[in-house]
Design a protein that fits this description.
6 copies of one chain form a homohexamer. Chain A is α/β, with parallel strands linked by helices. Helices cover 36% and strands 19% of the residues of chain A. The first copy, chain A, has an 8-stranded mixed beta sheet, with helices on both faces. Chain A has a 4-stranded mixed beta sheet with strand order 3-2-7-8. In chain A, helix 5 (183-196) links the parallel strand 10 (169-173) and strand 11 (199-203). The termini of chain A are far apart.
Chain lengths: 328, 328, 328, 328, 328, 328
């Protein structure tokens, strides 16, 4: 797919929240301090792409209060254009509480995102002249937005369709969230978005849950190729790397990089950023998987939600294949 | 009014939130850390009364998640009985963000309490056999609850009426909140609750806003005496102490104690706790004002929402009239 | 053993201290900040049982100062009844400093508990009408108390004997502390308490140190069965789970759950809470070991001394047998 | 002066440093923790103007390392365009250590800015096509830059001259720093910059030190009017407000707003931002002084170097003339 | 009095504790973090004198554990010789908890110093060859030591007597502590130490409490001159400076310096250090009072117990008479 | 080699910096807080030796400001004599920023040490009568100093030569730093220092980089024995322990101790301290390697740069060979 030049490389669309985490692995229930981070799947992708050198904007709806301003400022700090944000005096800023845990107590997420400004967005809120050729080359969105509310789902579908019609590449991360909707509802709710997408990402586990695919990555890719013809399908495999398939090609695979887990949240978003960055440059799936895996591994070592790496750091990781040890 | 013995001295009813405050007078907008406190007008009163030695329970509706459990635990720690809490898997725990500021930037409150569990309470949620003689001697509630939602208002009115009918003393803090409703709506919405109350508290400023009273405390008390016959009316005067009037008596006044402002939030609730404690013991307004003022002043010197004083500390303040200096 | 109904399920008796720990694995010697936790073997058990749903009270003697009040408040927060605490103006609140370390520098405990209020307790301080049928079903105590002072030892022995006579189950954790007394003195000092106990807990290592038992769990259990006839004997095996034996039964064993070590202190107390909870419900040793091991593993992942888990979390761990991973 | 339209409203030019401050009024000498802030006179002005709604860019030279990136990110977060920054692999990022103190120990600044990237800038580093009509309406710089090094001085002079020639308004804050150069050297070194400026700002104290002006504001303004004909001269008067004079007008004065001192550093820069914002809108000195004073007072209540206020907050302060108290 | 040369200028003798303070004016009772400081009246004096340039050693008895080592390290860091410390494996390190408060809640001290190593010192522990001519010029001790225990009192008396006999100047701060002993007991217990002292310090308040002196400083000085003939008597007057009298001279007075209270603890010790430093240099009471007051005022602005000033800072304060404002 | 008695056991010479590290594995780029540590290779060695019981002084040049004073105080606290420090009003205190990371993002060092006081030292600054017999027994220096500047290199060479001529043992850690100079330049620049040394230390990796040695430790030791005749050569092997060789002996080896990595920086310096301590006592290489390895392993478990262990702790590690587990 040849993407024409545009004012911007990528626009991502979705909800970003303020995350509140107790320090030192404390339980939420007894926490008297919280560390705040700004995080959202699609803005994490935007940050990763901006740090890798692309021109990126983030489209969303935010309540105009100090929490909303903090979110926009944090994204601007990372080089993301926030001029597309639709500000409102209504609704609220989504929050989530993350209790970080170690085995056998795993990390736990308590969402407090209901009634957020983005959950109240409607297609009429979308800027009327946004989805035109020359404005951007790519639209990226995820399966969280349609799970927020029917009107948010409708807005996401409208955006994807209009972007596709404008000749942009549509990139779609399924991002199934079990505590927002069931697998069956999700599979149905995501159908139209997938149809408008050119690239879709999902973990092997969700391919099984939503589409009944088998546990083998290769079979799953071939199965999804049949189920969603004409798409590039990217499958993440947990600690075992990632795999992908072209509409009429064979599965390709990259085993990933080792990482110690410092900040697991946002690893999948970092993967998408790395993948998309390399794919836009090379149109080559194996290289895109390599960059996606490098970005995810590097993110795992960074606290917070955002992938605060540089292009040079990922290049170094890819070339060395390992740890970047202390040099004084 | 003679109050019969009961299993419990006071039950307070209302919403308690988790408060999030940036440390060091930072702006909310750029905060990366928050300190958490548990606070709510009626539970603050409960804590104050429990620390002064009364048997106190707190009635509310809370979402059963780590934040809800934190609230209940914090109240139990202070000796408040939380067995009346109505737990639900639905809704959310109310939050508020407090940006502490110095002049000319004052402290600012950002409420995030919409859709909370208490805002969804209905009269049917009230324990069926609660409001009976012998269960408690006093019910305390405030004008925040009716501002949350129509059904919360209905529940508060039901509680006040049933408590009055059961022979309990009904104590009601008007607690007008300008960012929850307008003065006109509030005056109307509070009417029924005031009618069921035996004691009502309000600041001079709100007597003007809601009832068009003049700026002089004495005139206001006399005016309110006429407007709300049969009630004990307690008027707080900001830094100038407090005044009160019996249904057919003359205004009495106490000038208050000096305090450096460390934690202004909750000062009014501490006043109510001190007032109610002394009034239940002595049935005497001047002494009740003195204890109310001592409690408020002491609270001003304590961070957070809750009045973490002891009876001995307030006695010492009342007897000395001033600072309790460093003794080693 | 059939336990009759009572006002309370379990009373635990022992000393609770304020723990002070430097953050970030710093050395005590150069620490300029300390994090405070409330911890004591028997109150940790009380907290665990209360969080699992039992009615629990804690019996102790505490100095009436802010540190003593902090301890009582922390236990009340977790649902433990503190109305049995014997308050005194004398003596001091026990402290301990914990330096958390990694290999080869292990964690180190500096006790500063001499002259504490509990070390000065005498049998005359015990509430005269406490140890009667119907007041509680279980008394739990540990071998730390007799190590504190002769009068504390005498008080523990009195309590155990009276509880047994009142028909309560007596649960006794040997809890040998090498820096409080020698193995020989301990074996002698604990004899009377063990004789009054129905259930005793000890680690394999201490069975060797105090009673010369062999390193094999099975042989040790059989040996202790002979040495202490008529007791349920529970043996913890470090990272290898736990084992137990009925007075005339055969050893049973449970291999335990994997855990990453976040807060090792209090793991043994959590085990006792889990064991006792399940045993009281099922009278079944294998299930009790399973719950004890789940409770201990879960506690290992929680900072501080107290086992801040819920019944649902332990059930989930027992049913899944592993990590409870991040779900968003 | 009529300013034509341009792509940008204001460009500020100068050095920005990382500030390191011990928390809690500790002495630098015994600090084991530092709080970091991004601060620089000219970037503080840029931030203030951006937050008031203008389009602002910051021109500087920065070492491309994590500290340099932190500085640029912090400015972008506040809406300042950093695309003009000249990045270099050489030199270092300027630092300053601020020990905050109370009387009699005042706050103390330890500069560690020698050899910074900006001190090594030369006129050749300036973008060749920057100083042209239509690119910006205003250039703001300060007297710190010429104090850093001869080549930095030469670069500042070049920039001021080219901006003037391009028809921009040149705004110049004398910002005399006694620990960078002497008053005599400063007076001489600033001469050419003042000659190219349209608006100059200085405190009364420095008018005396550098130009031998008398202690009376009016006489100083008239004296400076004569000494620097054709300039708007703005005089700050410490806690007593500010005064100004047009090239051929009479002195005007505004008494300022009261403030509690939370963050004194950056108050002068906030003043410049407020003044310039209002002057560009109204071309009216009294109003500009009022906005300058409001901005300075508001900044005094904000920690750190940057003026994190909004236009609405300053408007509210100007209209009310005082504290913005707690409203819930 | 002519003091011969010696290896050391001043030896101070007394107890030093670890202080634990909750941050942010929190109550001790609800603190979950503590900041640690090293403080003791006599070691504070030692630190002040060392920082002013004298050669100073500190004599004490300390338990050899991490807390004892922290105390010694903190004093060495400030240039105090700790080689005279008598280390023991026994006893404990004294602690004190300081709750910092604002009016009406004042700061409160909770001592936990009973059973400390110094309280168990006996005269036999004193180094046998310490109190000889040429070893030091001055011994400083305070009235806290005799309040700790009878044997500590006996040791202090022995030290004072031997130092006097060796021709050293004996400096004695009465330091009456109401929560260690009563005024009557103290007056009696301090008598022998005062008799061996050449210089004594006490606040006006304690002159009234212990010796029934009138509230006027001049009358008190003259009264004490008669009561304790042959001594230099130094009287501190709270916020109103200090006064002193020679054995046969007239009272002299210095009004003190203004200070904002950041760290009030240790102000009296700083006064003694400033006084003694100037007196040893000038033998002149007025100058000594001036330095004492400057040292006390400067200490008030410094967190913690130790007077972390420099000689240059005190000189600057004395010469300017006021605040040392921010200069950049 | 027989070392005569002296006033001091070891003098170490080199630069010490203030280290600034973001807490919680955050990126430097987004850090808003920093933890400060005092660290320098040669002062780390001094601290280690002082804590093991030797008399140690540190020779350096420091700027007389709060940062310089903090460095000297931190070393005095650990028992290091700082009276040899050459104080200057000029230059600056070296800093370094350490970003601690986990794989694949390794820890990264950002040096900010250019233009430091030590980099400006000249041989003329050395105390004229320092390098004489009886003043010290050992001089320790490292290869960092000659990398700082030509004059620092000249000063290091002068010191080493004079110490050798005075009959001291000269101990030299090559400490090659790739971001200060290249391997070729380093090999040349260190030649003269090595010639004056009696003992040299280097990692296997640098033996390859600087001298082209093979990857086998034994071959490298033999190769270096030939290359640098007459020296004791000590080779560190990363996680595999260390090896050494006498001028005419055979290689000896010690496998090291396991450690979890808490504070890797300063591990090599701890090794040198342990080695030198044991070698000075025993003149025996195997024992010296054992102590060096124990010291390095123990340091790995301690945050910060300085080896805060005791002699007893290392002895215990050496005798047990493993973890020192929690005992209560």
């Amino acid at each position: 797919m040849n993407l024409p030049n545009a004012d911007c490389d990528v626009i991502t669309f979705g909800e970003t929240m303020l995350r509140l985490t107790p320090p030192g692995l404390q339980r939420l229930e007894s926490a008297v301090q919280f560390e705040a981070h700004v995080g959202g799947s699609e803005s994490n992708v935007a940050v990763g792409l901006a740090r890798l050198g692309l021109r990126v904007a983030w489209l969303s709806r935010l309540t105009l209060n100090p929490l909303g301003r903090q979110i926009a400022a944090a994204l601007r700090a990372q080089g993301v254009d926030t001029s597309l944000v639709i500000w409102t005096e209504q609704d609220r800023v989504g929050l989530y509480f993350l209790e970080e845990g170690k085995a056998p107590r795993g990390s736990q997420v308590l969402y407090d995102r209901a009634h957020s400004a983005l959950s109240r967005i409607t297609p009429a809120d979308l800027p009327p002249d946004l989805f035109v050729a020359g404005r951007s080359r790519v639209l990226h969105l995820s399966g969280i937005t349609p799970a927020l509310s029917p009107n948010a789902a409708q807005t996401a579908r409208t955006a994807a369709q209009q972007a596709r019609e404008a000749g942009w590449l549509v990139s779609f991360d399924l991002n199934y969230r079990a505590n927002l909707w069931s697998a069956t509802t999700a599979a149905q709710g995501l159908e139209s978005l997938i149809q408008n997408a050119h690239v879709i990402y999902l973990p092997l586990r969700d391919a099984a849950l939503l589409y009944g695919m088998p546990p083998e990555p290769e079979k799953t890719l071939v199965g999804l190729q049949a189920r969603f013809p004409g798409k590039i399908i990217v499958l993440t495999l947990g600690g075992r790397g990632a795999a992908a398939i072209q509409p009429s090609g064979d599965p390709v695979f990259h085993p990933g990089f080792e990482a110690e887990e410092v900040g697991r949240v946002g690893g999948g978003d970092a993967f998408v950023a790395g993948f998309l960055f390399a794919y836009l440059q090379s149109q080559e799936l194996t290289q895109a998987l390599q960059w996606g895996n490098a970005a995810a591994a590097f993110k795992y070592s960074i606290p917070g939600d955002m992938p605060l790496f540089s292009r040079a750091e990922l290049e170094k990781l890819i070339h060395s294949g390992g740890d970047q040890s202390l040099k004084r």
